Amino acid sequence: MKRLIVRIRRKLRFYIFKIVCLAIECTHALDEQKICFLSDNREVMGGNLKSIYDALEGSSYQRVIEFKRDRRVRRTLKEKLSLAYNLSTSRYILLEDLSTAITYFPVRKHQDIVQLWHGPGAYKRFGYSRKKTGEKIGTIHRGYKKYTKVITSGEKIRWCYAEAFGLPLDKVKATGFPRTDDFYHQDYLDHVRETFYQNYPELKDKKIILFAPTYRGVVPRDASYDFSKLDLDALYEKFHQDYVIIFKWHPALYNNIVMKKVKAPHFEKYHGFYRDFSFYRDIQELLVVCDTLVTDYSSLIFDYVLLNKPIVYYTYDLEDYTGYNGRGLYFPFETYVYGEVAHNMSELIAALSKGNLEIEKRKVFFETFMNACDGKATKRAVQYILRG
Description:
Elements: H1 2-27, E1 31-39, H2 47-55, E2 62-67, H3 77-89, E3 90-95, H4 100-104, E4 112-115, E5 149-151, H5 158-165, E6 172-173, H6 186-199, E7 207-211, H7 232-239, E8 243-247, H8 251-258, E9 274-276, H9 283-289, E10 292-295, H10 300-304, E11 311-314, H11 318-322, E12 340-342, H12 345-354, H13 359-369, H14 377-387
Parallel strand pairs: 1-2, 1-3, 3-4, 4-5, 5-6, 7-8, 7-10, 8-9, 10-11, 11-12
Helix pairs in contact: 1-3, 2-14
């Protein structure tokens, strides 16, 4: 009964939001020069949103920002009114993930809702694609079908995004991912490294292993990870002299750790060998400074291929995660591999020791998923968003 009341109240709040939006649309014209940058899971500008935002600096466009830290955080009344006003009057609404407000927002004629998405490539099935996995996913975000334009990182994966969002293929454009342009600018790479070591001088003489897995769980609010699969003692014994391991938990998992819904391991006894950098907002910078990436089914593999450094896939649950009853992948797992694959800790330690670069596999991977990311993606994305 209590859960039902909560759901009714939640529905009521969103329908009131919709009515407010309709009232604003009746009294305010659509501003052709206004662009709203929307996110329900970030506090500061970053990712593709930042690339587009910065590219429009000095233009005639008015840029407004509507961010909140986490989907579970409720906006104040003032913030809700601001959101309703900016969504209702902006010619363009740009987002990089789902937003609950879009589900109930009445889209105006000639208004564009553009999905920039947060991760390039096409790895884990999401959106409507998850219907094919047999997984109990509940209700799919209805706001997906309201998108008028979507960008991707490669021509060969446009169909994945069209399927996931329930859209016609012609609404998906392979412009490349704007934020990947940074990887082609040496000034950016040098600046990131210099700034990082200024802030963390104790890491300058160490090789950095970045451990950044995705979360386990059907939806972000249930995000977890099997920390028992990490043998911290064994890693410390093997690598502590020359290395440091930085953990960057997925934002959904980190939010649950902060909220004490998930208990993360303690690192105190390892004398600084393990560092939790989950607070570090821009993981792109961590990809730049690390020497080796350890991940699993995370979209980080797509950004990371542009940096030409070793990668290890730690997939202790490969069969469960990729199988019919799991999350499911768009392509066979082998398609995504351009480094060593480890299924347990002994294999992980061996793979880290080798540091292999799979050159030919990298080329195939790039052509499949990232061939539109050539350092000029921001320019193409801006042209597509504003002029079609």
